[in-house]
Amino acid sequence: MKKINVSIHPVGCSGIVCYVGDSISDETNDLVQVISRHIINKMGHKFTGVVPSYHSVTMFYDSITYSFFELKKEVETQILNLQTINLKQKKTIYEIPVCYGLQYGPDIENVMNHHHISMNEVIQMHQESLYRIYMIGFLPGFPYLGGLNRKLATPRLKKPKLVRQGAVGIAGDQTGIYPFESPGGWNIIGQTPVTIFSNNRDDTVLFQSGSFLRFKSINEIEYAEIEKSIKEGSFSLKKEVLEVDEN
């Protein structure tokens, strides 16, 4: 593993942020995921939450029990240990079914017109990519995905509107999925029947940052069938797990 250079700072009176870099890249996010998992494994009992993002890891703690300087020193030691530990990670790839088109994706024409391409080309390019989940935010369960074909990068809508649960959208050079109905300014090109966030499940969020998504185009009949199987509790999201050596 390469030498890991980090910068650690306080966040308010009960948080620590560990900056791994200052850019959005696969290499930086790989290190973020490695550090996040290692901190949870070695120090998880000392933190109330560990949140990885594009290029940083934020850790929250009880300021009555621990001090910033105490935890900073231990985090630095754990990261130093990573320089010599051989780690392997599992690369989890989820397949998300999406019904594209005007009924389910009212803004797909924006993408078509912006790039002067057909609807079929938008659909084909969108489902060809393998998308990395860089982080989860701004809504609970909302995955920020990297890997969008640059030929599909499209500016946000000038005026946000109400977006349906499961809406799949494009904003700039990113794509994402709305976990529930919400105001939004992304160009909606399709919709998935899969419920990616639910308080009624043990796994409230189906996937985590560091995992990957693929989109699979489905028709309206398949959409209705999946929606029915979800209500009946018989639906199982397809996923593939690969071992990846990080060295």
Overview of this structure, please?
It is a single chain. With 247 residues, this protein is of the alpha+beta class. The protein has 2 domains: 7-85, Gyrase A, domain 2 (2-Layer Sandwich), CATH 3.30.1360; 90-245, Cyclophilin. It is 26% helix and 30% strand. The chain contains 5 helices and 14 strands. It has helices at 26-43, 68-81, 108-115, 119-128, 220-232, and strands at 7-11, 15-19, 49-52, 56-60, 88-100, 131-136, 143-146, 161-163, 167-171, 174-177, 182-184, 187-191, 212-217, 239-245. The strands form 3 sheets. Strands 5, 6, 7, 9, 10, 12, 13 and 14 form an 8-stranded mixed sheet that branches. It is elongated. It starts with 6 loop residues before the first strand and ends with a strand.
List the helices and strands and how they pair.
Elements: E1 7-11, E2 15-19, H1 26-43, E3 49-52, E4 56-60, H2 68-81, E5 88-100, H3 108-115, H4 119-128, E6 131-136, E7 143-146, E8 161-163, E9 167-171, E10 174-177, E11 182-184, E12 187-191, E13 212-217, H5 220-232, E14 239-245
Parallel strand pairs: 5-13
Antiparallel strand pairs: 1-2, 2-4, 3-4, 5-12, 5-14, 6-7, 6-13, 8-11, 9-10, 9-12
Features:
14 strands; nucleotide-binding; 2 domains; 247 residues; Cyclophilin-like_dom_sf; 4-stranded antiparallel β-sheet; Gyrase A, domain 2; Cyclophilin; alpha+beta
